[in-house]
Amino acid sequence: MQINPALASQARKILDINKSERHIRGGMATKEKYHQLHEHQANTAI
Length: 46
What we know:
Radius of gyration: 20 Å
Distance between the termini: 63 Å
Order of helices and strands: H
Structural class: mainly alpha
Number of helices: 1
Largest sheet: none
Strand content: under 5%
Shape: rod-shaped
Helix content: over 70%
């Protein structure tokens, strides 16, 4: 197989961006998880 250098370069840029941002997305997902858990507990306590 041959690799298309232009396409490989574009893919590498996108992968590098995703890799550099994944810790932020993970933190946001965790924050949302506990926010929803807290809301659920507050609503069931009433």
